[in-house]
Design goal:
Blueprint (H helix, E strand, L loop, with lengths): L2 H15 L11 H28 L7 H28 L10 H33 L1
Helix pairs in contact: 2-3, 2-4, 3-4
């Protein structure tokens, strides 16, 4: 039995145990969940900014009912983005750069948090603005 064969066997066994990284264009479940969470959070952030701007204005623009609906929509979108990002981070078995969507999940968590904060601020300001208008 040649010695080269004995030396090469442990090296090939070690390579077989290594986790397989996804390809660049492969759309894994983690990448899909992270992307969806990021898009939902981004849409919620845009709606939250619009609701916050509408809540600042008094007497013009949409009524307080539409502002509250936009604020609640931003809150719901933010919570969904947080849930999707958290799910992907919890189920990912490798680090960032392996194709499991962990990097995108962190972005979804951040954008979801921003959307939730913007929606909460808009909801609070729409309540105080409605109280000022009726007083």
């Amino acid at each position: 039995m040649p010695i080269r064969h004995l030396i090469a066997a442990p090296a090939t066994a070690h390579l077989a145990v290594q986790p397989f990284a996804a390809g660049v264009l492969t759309l894994s479940a983690g990448r899909l969940g992270a992307s969806l969470g990021t898009l939902v959070g981004l849409a919620g952030a845009v709606v939250g900014v619009r609701a916050l701007r509408a809540a600042r204005r008094t007497g013009t623009g949409p009524g307080p009912g539409r502002t509250r609906i936009r604020a609640v929509a931003a809150l719901v979108a933010g919570v969904l983005a947080l849930a999707l990002g958290g799910l992907v981070v919890a189920t990912s078995d490798s680090g960032i750069g392996t194709g499991n969507g962990r990097g995108g999940a962190y972005v979804a968590l951040l954008v979801g948090l921003i959307s939730t904060v913007l929606g909460g601020l808009a909801a609070a300001r729409s309540r105080t603005g409605a109280a000022r208008r009726t007083a």
